[in-house]
Design brief:
Elements (H helix, E strand, L loop, with lengths): L3 H5 L10 H12 L2 H33 L5 H49 L2 H5 L3 H43 L1 H8 L2 H38 L1 H6 L3 H54 L5 H13 L1 H28 L9 H9 L15 E12 L2 E12 L3 E5 L6 H8 L7 E6 L2 E2 L5 H5 L2 E4 L10 H6 L7 H10 L3 H6 L17 H14 L4 E5 L7 H14 L4 E5 L11 E6 L2 E6 L1 H7 L2 H17 L3
Parallel strand pairs: 3-8, 3-9, 6-7, 7-8
Antiparallel strand pairs: 1-2, 1-4, 4-5, 9-10
Helix pairs in contact: 2-12, 3-4, 3-6, 3-11, 4-6, 4-12, 6-7, 6-8, 6-11, 6-12, 7-10, 8-10, 8-12, 10-11, 10-12, 17-19, 19-20, 21-22
């Protein structure tokens, strides 16, 4: 467990409010226009109703003071009852609309974020831990979706209510209205100051929350290793350090919010107090205001701070949420490094249904690397002027020391990465001129540690071809020698594999992964040390399945146990990104070079292991 995710967080800008960002976030709400406009319109009408309530009170008071209980009084009373009824109905409407809108925004953000995660290149995941990404689709999405509807509601309601109150106060007494409005400039200055403070602290909170999520996820995944090495206390201390940072930043953010809102409330109270003082002076000196209008004005003076407080609170929340908005919108707008270029996209759009570029029956006869250079870091080249040609029906085995470039070659062949220099050709055509989806749909990849999804064995095999029938699934399992152990297993094909396949042995997981790949009927197979973690008996079973699966296909096999690649058409010994030896198993043994030394040393080690030495 480490704190490295902290170093992988993107640096954030200064403390300014990013209106451009929030306009992009609002586009997610625009997709639910019906509920959006229902909420906004109901809020605006509610503001009008609340503006009229003090006036209706004033009319009723003036009528009562004058001793009139005639039809006019009854009409005013009926009008007041209508306003109260409308108030209740409008509150129900905007709460319902805001709920639908919040749910819809959360759904859209998570869907778009997950869709983008499926499209992003492997390089994106090389520098971002799982927890870092999980926090974007969980806490960040929740924060945005729960805030945005209420912010728009309070902004529309509050702005209309402020305008209504201001107009009503000016109509009643413009001098008193000016005394109330004198607080607006200091309110603006206080808001500007705290806006920057809150934005900085909230970004630190969201940033640290992502780190904690990553550390927590890593701790859960590595709990067996932690316990095996007796590092529970050290792991706890590392987690406590990150939690301590989160606590410190959260207290700072809460303190700033706790100071900001009372400042706004206090300034509002100052405005009310000044209006009361000036009104009292006017009453002593004589005034044209009726008693009802004077009471209504005081109500407006008190109510004037209410929308300001609500808007201030929502702005505070918005400051805190901007960091989350930056993260989720940044994820959604991330452009995959590996993607179709504009020419290919145009070709896909123009291709007839079933054409080669949208998943038709186009064959891949050859794959050729021409003068390929590749690096993960510019100053650390992995492949240097690499050249290789492989034809349909051939199996190329890649061997060599760890870090030599074997997995990189396979990843480039699969277009999980693309070369910085040079070309990779499919039947003479640079593979960046072909559809990425089409090409990768022709791949079958079996990794050293295969991943199985929670579900049944049948569901995991069917993942290779979702349209496959039960008989096709069972035939794929038979092809790779998996049918017998599946049939003997309790539940058969309907047996649950557990999270990550934990209810099965490593060898059984490999066979299911191989059956899944065979079911997809790929043209290109990539095997990454598929037998390195199993016993000899299981290795022989898997090897027989591999030999069957690779027939007639282009195959790249990354080998750890050299005994498993004796039948390969060509064996490449890779060292520091270059081919230092190549040939068949027999030819390389006869040359007595590096491959011969690797092979004889491994044979001796396995012989000693069998004898228990």
């Amino acid at each position: 467990m480490s704190s490295s995710p902290f170093l992988q967080e993107e640096e954030y800008a200064g403390g300014r409010f990013n209106w451009r960002l929030w306009r992009r976030i609002l586009s997610h709400a625009a997709a639910h226009r019906r509920w959006l406009w229902t909420m906004i319109v109901s809020g605006m009408v509610l503001a009008l109703v609340e503006t009229l309530l003090p006036l209706s009170n004033a009319w009723l008071i003036d009528e009562a003071v004058a001793g009139r209980t005639d039809t006019a009084f009854k009409l005013y009373a009926a009008f007041y009852i209508v306003l109260v009824t409308m108030f209740s109905l409008l509150v129900w409407i905007f709460i319902r609309a805001a709920g639908h809108l919040a749910t819809g925004i959360a759904f859209d953000l998570r869907e778009q974020g997950f869709e983008r995660l499926q499209e992003l290149s492997f390089s994106y995941y090389d520098t971002r831990p799982t927890g870092w990404l999980v926090s974007r689709l969980t806490s960040d999405c929740t924060k945005i979706s729960s805030l945005l509807p209420w912010f728009m509601l309070d902004l529309s309601w509050g702005a209309c209510f402020l305008v209504g109150i201001s107009v009503a106060m000016f109509l009643l007494d413009w001098q008193l209205a000016l005394w109330v409005l004198v607080i607006v400039p200091p309110l603006s200055m206080v808001s500007w100051y705290f806006q920057r403070k809150l934005l900085r602290s909230s970004r630190l909170v969201r940033r640290t929350n992502s780190i904690i999520t990553g550390v927590y996820n890593e701790g859960l995944m590595g709990v067996r290793t932690t316990q095996a090495l007796a590092r529970e206390q050290e792991s706890l201390e590392e987690f406590q350090q990150q939690s301590g940072d989160m606590k410190r930043y959260a207290i700072r953010n809460s303190l700033q919010s706790a100071v900001y809102l009372p400042c706004i409330i206090s300034l509002g109270a100052v405005g009310v107090g000044m209006a009361l003082w000036k009104g009292g002076v006017q009453i002593q000196g004589g005034t044209d205001l009726s008693l009802g209008n004077l009471i209504a004005f005081m109500q407006y003076a008190v109510l004037f701070s209410m929308p300001i407080q609500e808007i201030a609170a929502r702005i505070t929340d918005l400051q805190a949420a901007q960091a989350a908005a930056e993260r989720i919108q940044g994820l959604i707008e991330t452009v995959p490094e590996i993607r179709d270029n504009p020419e290919v996209q145009a070709a896909i759009a123009d291709a007839p249904l079933g054409g080669p570029e949208d998943g038709g029956l186009a064959k891949i006869h050859t794959i050729e690397f021409k003068h390929v250079d590749f690096w993960y870091k510019p100053d650390e080249p992995v492949l240097i002027d690499f050249n290789l040609s492989i034809a349909e029906g051939q199996t190329i085995a890649l061997v060599g020391s760890t870090g030599g470039g074997k997995t990189t070659i396979a990843s480039l062949a699969a277009r999980f990465y693309e070369p910085q220099r040079g070309e990779i050709l499919l039947d003479g055509v640079e593979y960046r001129k072909r559809s990425l989806h089409w090409y990768q749909s022709q791949l079958g990849v079996v990794l050293q540690t295969p991943h199985l999804f929670a579900g049944t064995i049948r569901e995991n095999i069917r993942y290779g071809c979702l349209e496959a029938t039960d008989s096709e699934i069972e035939q794929a399992a038979k092809t790779v020698n998996a049918h017998s152990f599946i049939s003997e297993n309790e539940g058969g094909y309907e047996a649950e594999v557990g999270e990550g396949g934990t209810r099965l042995s490593v060898g059984q997981r490999q066979l299911i992964a191989l059956a899944r790949a065979v079911l997809a009927d790929p043209q290109v197979f990539i095997m990454d040390e598929a037998t390195s973690s199993v016993d000899t008996e299981t290795e022989q079973l898997i090897q027989a399945a591999i030999d069957t699966a690779l027939k007639g296909r282009i195959a790249f096999v990354i080998a750890h146990r050299l005994s498993t690649i004796r039948g390969a058409d060509r064996i490449l010994v890779i060292d520091h990104g270059r081919i230092v030896e190549q040939g068949t198993h027999r030819e390389l043994l006869q040359n007595q070079g590096r491959y011969w030394r690797l092979y004889t040393r491994q044979e001796a080690e396995e012989a000693e292991s069998r004898m228990g030495l």
